[in-house]
Amino acid sequence: LRPGVYLHRITMDEAIKPVIDPLVNFAKESQRLLVRCEKPNNKQFGQTAVASLVGLGVIGMIGFVVKLMFIPINNLILGGA
Questions:
Q1: What is the pTM assigned to this prediction?
Q2: Cα→Cα distances 23→13, 16, 18, 27, 30, Å
Q3: Residue 10 pLDDT
């Protein structure tokens, strides 16, 4: 080592701080969110349930239509085997 150059030893606190700080920040923000949240009333719950069921139905219909389209295509490719 050259004279006047000192090695800086990292303490355990300095090594762990970059890992712990984001976790603590996330925990604080999560707690703040949970405190602000409230239970939905019956109307909100019903709207959410209907929207979920409509989305599920749309996805099911798309899958059904795709399946119907591929039946004739598979018959052409496989030759009705």
A1: 0.52
A2: 15, 11, 9, 6, 10
A3: 75
